[in-house]
Backbone:
């Protein structure tokens, strides 16, 4: 449960370095301030434009393009960068990392990140990889907001040997931002997320591509009649391409495993349609409703129709 | 463009029969009243509970379980029922249909509906099949709302030989409800909607089923971590099973065609992942963003992140 006492959650920390100030890094910075963190927030990013935006938004206390400088003296480093950039970041911060600093991250794949960090960080670093299951299709610091993690889950995958105090500090950090925290083995995380996040993104990217490539149907028609269901998929398929390329490359085996199952099931549905097996179709379509109800009951999605899109109300806000 | 003059849009009509009072029928009834229709709305449904709800909501002027009685004397009949129920409905209303009455519908597949209606209705009926591209995952009369069709497209697929006046009346009817209207050939409609609506629903049903069936991942985990993308698919997969079974059975060929393309594309993505072809993945993920922008620019989805879900704002409304 979120820690109601705000600032106390961040008590042991006096300087936090956020490496990478995109949607996630920005939401952490905003969440820290909103929840009473009074220490120093050091922000770094390789892109000048992101840094300028972060500075204009007053997201932190210092800004720069050097990760090595940002992490110097920090009690905690949060790597908010694509999974494929972890090795380079670990190498960059290794020389200046404070003795016993906690290094965590927000990457969507955990086995790969853990390996990158343990290989390239000095042994004194206390590594507690993490993954907040929250986000949006937008990218960049101006896409973030302070309550992004509120009532969402953050998974921590601490390796064997890391001390309990470090795990506790990272857990309280996320609870301070409003998240619920669950500890998990890296392998299990990567399999569970393959089905609840990675495969859905792959499928969404794929259907949007298929629609765009249909030579008998114009792109204008696809757009015009997208409210029939297609538009839902385009949101996810508008997610950051670099981040998602890295997810599929680094969680390759679990994604291929879940994709294989998806394709098998789809082949069976295809056969049901070809052979006009209406009862089989009905039974499958009937079963899937229960999961939606479970998600709404668990507070992981809105109960409002159409996700509560502005148009879905009696007041017409869509104009 | 929507007709701003409200009631004038419905001027030639004095009695409208709505056969089937679910989400769509209810939204039509509410929209008619909200936009100034002053004539008689006759509502019928096979299910007593739907009728009771409709009556409690004062959606119409008369209520009953007999379609034959409801359509007697009606200038326009709107069949708001699953595509697979069209033959039975056409047979039921044929004997009492007023000379020259306009018969339209809201089914998601048009070739099949056109055939059902032309085969089973008397020759004097003026048949103008229609399909409003709007809805939600909810079912039943209490799920409807008056502005559901506002700024959405309704496709009409009038057969050759139907008089222009009838087409014009149906077009003005939908414009009066706030919709944009497009005329299309039945075959083209069925192909375009296969990719923008039917395939997305099939894919959504399938991924939810695959996730539910994964023995290594519990349903509780799927629900807990659904905010990673999965939850988006569960909305569509909560749609009415009867309606969607009928769609796949009656638009079989176009669905199989688009599904074949989707599966080919997915196999290629699978190969890209297996062979670690990052550049190919990036290029595909980069392309798909443009379609999202097109949909937002065309007013067919909200620009707000996460569909404007209540949680996606600085005020925390998710609790």
Residues:
């Amino acid at each position: 449960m979120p820690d109601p006492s705000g600032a106390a959650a961040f008590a042991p920390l006096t300087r936090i370095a956020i490496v990478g100030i995109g949607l996630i890094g920005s939401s952490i910075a905003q969440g820290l301030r909103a929840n009473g963190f009074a220490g120093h927030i050091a922000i770094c990013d390789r892109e000048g434009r992101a840094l300028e935006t972060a500075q204009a938004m007053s997201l932190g206390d210092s800004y720069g393009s050097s990760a090595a400088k940002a992490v110097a003296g920090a009690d905690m480093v949060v790597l908010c960068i694509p999974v494929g950039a972890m090795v380079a970041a670990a190498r960059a911060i290794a020389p200046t990392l404070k003795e016993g600093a906690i290094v965590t991250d927000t990457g969507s794949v955990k086995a790969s990140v853990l390996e990158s960090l343990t290989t390239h960080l000095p042994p004194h670093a206390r590594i507690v990889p993490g993954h907040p299951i929250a986000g949006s299709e937008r990218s960049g610091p101006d896409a973030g907001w302070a309550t992004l993690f509120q009532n969402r889950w953050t998974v921590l995958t601490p390796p064997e040997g890391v001390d309990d105090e470090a795990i506790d500090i990272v857990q309280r950090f996320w609870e301070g931002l409003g998240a619920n925290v669950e500890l998990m083995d890296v392998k299990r995380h990567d399999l569970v997320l393959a089905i609840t996040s990675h495969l859905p993104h792959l499928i969404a990217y794929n259907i949007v591509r298929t629609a765009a490539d249909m030579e008998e149907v114009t792109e204008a028609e696809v757009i015009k009649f997208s409210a029939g269901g297609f538009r839902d998929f385009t949101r996810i398929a508008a997610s950051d391409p670099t981040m998602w390329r890295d997810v599929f490359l680094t969680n390759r085996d679990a994604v291929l495993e879940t994709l294989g199952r998806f394709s098998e099931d789809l082949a069976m549905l295809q056969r049901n349609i070809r052979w006009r097996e209406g009862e089989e179709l009905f039974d499958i379509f009937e079963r899937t409703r229960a999961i939606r109800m479970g998600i709404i009951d668990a507070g992981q999605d809105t109960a409002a129709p159409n996700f509560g899109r502005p148009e879905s109300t009696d007041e017409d806000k869509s104009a």
